[in-house]
Design goal:
Layout: H1 6-12, H2 29-46, H3 51-58, E1 64-67, E2 74-77, H4 83-109, H5 115-140, H6 157-166, H7 173-197, H8 204-222, H9 229-245, H10 250-257, H11 268-284, H12 294-308, H13 313-337, H14 360-385, H15 397-406, H16 412-421, H17 425-459
Helix pairs in contact: 1-7, 2-3, 2-6, 2-13, 4-7, 4-10, 4-13, 5-7, 5-14, 6-7, 8-9, 9-10, 11-12, 13-16, 14-15, 14-17, 15-17, 16-17
């Protein structure tokens, strides 16, 4: 997942100090909490005292059942919903909704808003998805594991930017912005991969109903509707339709996010005029009571509503959802999906290969550690050498390669695709182990290269 106002943080990083900054406002906070949740999940899944309860909890049924004594009414919704599916098909919809809001913002007014800005990170993201998919396929073509080619194609920006932030000014700001924009483009690619290749048997009738509802929301948006209620209710209905359609329900979060209005309800001129008028009325409402008195509280509430509605709904939702996504939904996802029961040391042997099931471990590990940085670097090199794009300001090819290594930190999206790619629990668990090991190796390699290159630059 992607951190709200990351570009703002990157741009201002060297202009303001971090003294007094709240831990939860730092870019690495989400990564640290995710790492702790991974460790906790591994312990819960393997300690004799907890592993049985851990797996039973994940398999607990959460469906709502309405059953009449005569048996005429027997209704279950959502059918087959367990704690694990609630996290992956329910809570993660909010995660994907937030990603959709960020992708829309970057396309409309951010780092992907013009061809000149977008071309390098978009091509780098494409290369960073293609190369690991090829490496995975080389190891697993024609085997039971072949469907997992999408696992090593993702980048987890929470960890990558967190590491860059802790490395300070050793990395040019332009490369931090490049990696963040790349991750946004990578998210868009991952969403397309999930939608096109990791759905179930598609039920067209449910998708058509969802499409009709989304078209109604689109026309409602075009007519100027800016009230949140009229977008939230259709979003819930569309999620239910996607859940039963065979297309993964998280895609509904992205689709609805793209329909959220970015334009504010009130214009700048209206805001300025109305705020000045309310301020005057509030100041006139003086009394012997302590400030604010009852009438002043009324005007302050009106001013608050005016200010809130002078910011676009999309921006308000992204700002409101970000702390819940980073510090609640993603940690819960990690606790649910990172717990792998290691029955034997063979699970830790990522180099295990058999002609029947292939090697998920080698495909994922080398896809993340080698494929990701190689794909990002070669695509960037080709784009710059051909004149399609410009090298990020102050960057060198060696430093870009080092930063590209951090793109091999897959984690969140990789774990998510791993759960979609396989039904065999053995393959799922082997994939999880490889994701954790590959992401860790990519983080260490990228950090060491950045430290080495910055030290050599200081000496010269």
């Amino acid at each position: 997942m992607r951190l709200f106002s990351m570009y703002r943080w990157v741009r201002n990083r060297h202009m303001i100090g971090l003294k007094g900054r709240n831990f939860f406002e730092t870019p690495w906070a989400g990564g640290i909490i995710l790492l702790l949740c991974v460790i906790i999940a591994m312990l819960l899944a393997n300690l004799p005292a907890t592993k049985l309860y851990y797996h039973h909890l994940l398999e607990t049924d959460l469906s709502l059942m309405i059953h009449s004594p005569d048996g005429l009414i027997n209704w279950v919704f959502p059918r087959g919903m367990t704690v694990e599916k609630f996290v992956n098909d329910g809570l993660m919809v909010v995660f994907f909704f937030a990603i959709g809001l960020e992708i829309k913002r970057e396309i409309v007014s951010g780092q992907l808003s013009t061809m000149r800005k977008a071309i390098l990170p978009v091509l780098a993201a494409a290369g960073g998805m293609l190369a690991p998919a090829i490496i995975f396929t080389v190891f697993n073509h024609g085997t039971a594991a072949a469907n997992g080619w999408g696992i090593p194609t993702a980048t987890d920006i929470a960890f990558a930017i967190g590491i860059l932030s802790m490395l300070g000014n050793r990395v040019p700001v332009s490369l931090k912005i490049f990696l963040t924009a790349l991750a946004v483009a990578d998210d868009l690619g991952a969403i397309l991969v999930i939608a096109l290749f990791y759905g179930g048997k598609v039920r067209i009738e449910f998708l058509l109903i969802a499409l009709v509802i989304m078209l109604c929301v689109y026309f409602m948006k075009q007519m100027g509707e800016k009230r949140l209620f009229y977008y939230v209710v259709p979003a819930v209905v569309v999620w239910g339709l996607f859940y039963y359609s065979g297309v993964h329900s998280t895609i509904s979060g992205v689709a609805m996010a793209l329909l959220i209005p970015m334009e504010p309800r009130y214009s700048k001129e209206y805001y300025t005029h109305k705020m000045r008028w309310l301020k005057t009325l509030m100041l006139r409402a003086e009394s012997d009571e302590p400030f604010p008195n009852e009438l002043q509280r009324f005007y302050l509430r009106r001013m608050h509503d005016l200010t809130a509605n002078s910011v676009g709904m999309s921006d308000r939702l992204e700002h409101a959802l970000t702390p819940y996504v980073n510090f609640l939904i993603m940690p819960i996802f990690a606790l649910t999906n990172a717990g792998v029961e290691i029955g034997s040391l063979e699970y830790l042997n990522i180099f295990h290969y058999s002609p029947e099931i292939g090697s998920v471990g080698m495909g994922v590990f080398f896809g993340l550690l080698i494929g990701k940085p190689l794909g990002i670097f070669l695509a960037s090199w080709g784009a710059v050498r051909s004149g399609l794009a410009e090298m990020p300001e102050g960057a060198t090819w060696r430093m870009l390669l080092a930063v590209a290594c951090l793109g091999g930190i897959g984690f969140t999206m990789s774990l998510f695709v791993d759960a979609l790619a396989y039904t065999d629990l053995d393959l799922i668990d082997r994939g999880k182990i490889a994701i954790l090991m590959g992401s860790t190796a990519a983080a260490i390699l990228g950090s060491l290269l950045i430290l080495l290159l910055s030290r050599n630059r200081q000496k010269s």
